[in-house]
Amino acid sequence: MAGPVWIDGRRGGSVSVCDRGFQYGDGLFETFLIRDQRPCLWEGHLARLRLGCERLGIPLPAPATLWREALAACRGVAAGVLKLQLTRGCGGRGYAPPADPRPTRVFSLHPLPTGLEERRRLGVAVRLCRTPLGINPALAGLKHCNRLEQVLARREWSDPDIYEGLMCDTEGRLVEGVMTNLFWREGERVLTPRLDRCGVAGVVRRWVMDRLRDWGVQVLEVRAHPQALLQAQEAFLTNSVIGIVPVIRWQDARDWPVGETTRRLQMAWSS
């Protein structure tokens, strides 16, 4: 870990090898941007965590407890990253979950990624990944702890000039980036992949969609193949740490300028 860790409210320590998060990826996580000693978009992250707990049958810790522990972890941090991992807790061997689970919660602090301001200003290049995302509506939208598909996708490239990989489902339709959500503009409309069958419903993705609609921009969630990006006038990526980053190149396929919609969103995000 890059910084301090708190487990069930206590500084330091370790998680048991019988924890189902370690054994099966049986849990959820949220990643917060820290600004001025506070985790950003707290309510959005908490709503997604609550939905995940309901779907997986993991008891949600008291929100007041999570907020208190998050603030304590962020104390003295002007800018950084806070990660919350919530697992079902310990259980015996086998897939059957315990009847009365006692969740494990872990907060950890991390530095901001390097070069982030430059990427926001100049934009980044992306590639298309071969690794598909399996279609499973039961897990769609959730930020669960099993990220093996993303791990395999991220192994596909080592070129430092490629910032992100775009992932499709098993039917070849765009879903998201390995670590981001994807948007593109066609004329007056902004499009983003539907996430009802797989993918992570990002908190900043929701913020962007709400903000654009407040501005009167038509936002559509679509099922589209990668070739749809060839018709785009601009494209950008989002997540809770990077905020909004322009895409300026799809490797060997298309270049884009940094668009006005992207810049307007960046200004709103920074304010």
Automatic annotation (TrEMBL):
What EC number(s) is this enzyme filed under?
4.1.3.38
Check the record and name the InterPro entries matching this protein. Answer: Aminodeoxychorismate_lyase_IV, Aminotrans_IV, Aminotransferase-like, BCAT-like_C, BCAT-like_N, Class-IV_PLP-Dep_Aminotrnsfr
Keywords per UniProt: Folate biosynthesis, Lyase, Pyridoxal phosphate
GO molecular function terms listed in the Swiss-Prot or TrEMBL record: 4-amino-4-deoxychorismate lyase activity; pyridoxal phosphate binding
**Pfam families, per this entry?**
Aminotran_4
What subunit structure does UniProt give?
Homodimer.
Q: What is this protein called?
A: Aminodeoxychorismate lyase
